[in-house]
Design brief:
mainly alpha, Rossmann fold, Tyrosyl-Transfer RNA Synthetase, 3-stranded parallel β-sheet, two-stranded parallel sheet, 5 strands, elongated
């Protein structure tokens, strides 16, 4: 079973990234019957940040360091940088030649992002054809499965449609149609109740110090109907309770939920316990990351890119032979 997945290097990873992506990657990496390819999607980052003059080289290395500190193991998974494997661009170009424009324009994710990124000039060919590059990323390595969030399902369906169209046009069967693996928790809300995002300044990052985490947890939204400690609360509408459910022990969860419902504890005590649980989770990630310097991360990324290149080259020769009858 082959797994292919990537992340854009646009900033530090937060708890939402861990639960929505990294946690599933670690589960797949631990599987004895799978081979995983995890790549830094720096070309994808350009589709929405081409005007921002981001230092994608440094951001890519920082992302690899985050992955390594979370437990992604280069001995078990291939870690590489997308732009270091030029065959992605070659296949992307060829797939663009056969992908109907209407498929891309009707993509619901495209329409949503156009609306959500109001103020950014993303009316570009690169942004519109983003799913075609995703298709190239995946089928180049004969992926069986792609771990994704619910919002990425339309993109993967476009991948499958492109594969079928290629097979029909060139009377071949050289690509696999990858299936999705949906993450059970794709989004963790931020401290203000909105989607956790660096642009909202509501995130808890995997590199945060204990002091920084505590200060942030203190600002988290709780049950707005609970004014005093003596008021009964409702954990179901409390953001801090959702954090407990992800990071606290069952004993702690039972304690804070009973204490909230029966007005035995106040929100500050609940937040303090939440901080302790999150800090306990982040501490080993933070400590491991401190031991990984840029040189180590770059060497791992270059080694993985070399491995990916070797495999992609073989696949690309087969693809070109199919299209152009090149020996």
């Amino acid at each position: 079973m082959r797994i292919v997945s990537g992340m854009r290097p646009t900033g530090k990873l937060h708890l939402g990234h861990y639960l929505g992506v990294i946690k599933k990657w670690l589960e797949l990496q631990a599987s004895n019957d799978s081979k995983s390819y995890f790549f830094v999607a720096d070309w994808h980052a350009l589709s929405t940040t081409y005007e921002d003059k981001l230092n994608l080289k440094n951001l890519s290395i920082e992302l690899v360091k985050d992955w390594l500190s979370c437990g992604i193991d280069p001995e078990k998974s291939v870690i590489f940088i997308q732009s270091h494997v030029k065959y992605h661009a070659e296949l992307y170009m060829l797939l663009n030649m056969i992908t109907p424009l209407g498929w891309l324009e009707r993509n619901p994710t495209y329409k949503e992002q156009i609306a959500n990124l109001d103020g950014k000039d993303i009316h570009t060919a690169g942004f519109l054809t983003y799913p075609v590059l995703q298709a190239a990323d995946v089928i180049l390595y004969d992926a069986d499965f792609v771990p994704i969030g619910e919002d990425q399902r339309p993109h993967l369906e476009i991948t499958r449609e492109v594969v079928r169209r290629f097979h029909h046009l060139y009377n071949s069967n050289i690509f696999k149609e990858p299936k999705e693996i949906l993450s059970p928790t794709s989004r963790l809300l931020g401290l203000d109740g909105r989607k956790m995002s660096k642009s909202y300044n509501n995130s808890i990052y995997l590199t945060e110090s204990s002091d920084a985490i505590f200060k942030k947890i203190k600002t988290a939204i709780t049950d707005t109907q609970r004014v005093k400690k003596t008021d009964a609360g409702n954990p179901k509408v409390c953001l801090v309770n959702t954090y407990h459910e992800e990071f606290s022990t069952k004993e702690t969860i039972d304690y804070i939920q009973d204490g909230c419902i029966n007005a035995k504890i106040g929100c500050m005590e609940c937040k303090k316990l939440c901080f302790e649980s999150i800090d306990k989770f982040i501490a080993p990630i933070r400590e491991k990351r401190a031991t990984i310097d840029d040189k180590i991360a770059l060497e791992i990324a270059l080694d993985g890119s070399s491995k990916a290149n070797e495999e992609a080259k073989i696949k690309m020769e087969y693809i070109n032979h199919t299209i152009f009858n090149i020996e």
